Amino acid sequence: MRDYMDRFDAAGRALALGPARMVEVEDRRGRGVDAEADLLLAAAPEGPLVALDERGRQLDSPALARLMAAWRDDGARDVAFAIGGADGHGEAVRERAALTLSFGPMVWPHMLARVMLAEQLYRAATILGGGPYHRA
C-alpha cells in the first residue's frame, strides 16, 4: 500500500493532488456504527468525503480521475476516503459523504480495500497526467 501511496504522491505532485496520508481511527468494537462515525468524521478534513461501501456507486478508473480533478478544480484542498467497520458506516458518515463508492458488490477486508484504494488513487493521477500506467 505504501508503494502506491508514494507513487500517487510523485505522480500527483505536478497535478496539485496529494500528498496522500492514511489515518486510522481507534477501533471501538461494541460501540456501534454511530461511535465509529464520530471518530471518522473527527479525523476527516473539511473537503469532500468518500465513503467506501459495497452498496455504493461503482465508477470506472477514468470517472474517479475526473471526479478528483473536478474537486481539485473546485478548490477542495483535501478529499477523505473512509472505509467503514464491519457493520458499515453510521448515518452521520452517509449524510456527510459527497459520494458513496463501491469496489463491487463483494465485501473486501480492510487491508485489501486500502491497497485497492491506494492503487486507484495512483491510477487516477496517472490518467490525469497522461501517463502510460492505465490502459483501457
Describe the structure.
By secondary structure, this protein is α/β, with parallel strands linked by helices. The protein has one domain: Alpha/beta knot (3-Layer(aba) Sandwich), CATH 3.40.1280.10. The chain has a 3-stranded parallel sheet. It is globular. The mean pLDDT is 92. It comes from Rubrimonas cliftonensis. Pfam families: SPOUT_MTase (PF02590). Its main location: cytoplasm. Its EC number is 2.1.1.177.
**Strand order within the widest beta sheet:** 2-1-3
Shape designation: globular
Provide the β-strand percentage band: 5-15%
Classify the secondary structure makeup into a structural class: alpha/beta
Compute the separation of the termini in Å.
23 Å
The helix content, as a percent range, equals 40-55%
| Most strands sheet | 3 strands, parallel
What would you report as the Rg, rounded to the nearest angstrom? 15 Å
**CATH-derived architecture:** 3-Layer(aba) Sandwich
The number of strands is 3
Function: Specifically methylates the pseudouridine at position 1915 (m3Psi1915) in 23S rRNA.
Main location: cytoplasm
Catalytic activity: pseudouridine(1915) in 23S rRNA + S-adenosyl-L-methionine = N(3)-methylpseudouridine(1915) in 23S rRNA + S-adenosyl-L-homocysteine + H(+)
Binding site for S-adenosyl-L-methionine: 52, 84, 103-108
Give a quick precis of the structure:
Its main location: cytoplasm. The chain is an alpha/beta fold. It contains five helices and three strands; from the N terminus they run H-H-E-H-E-H-E-H.
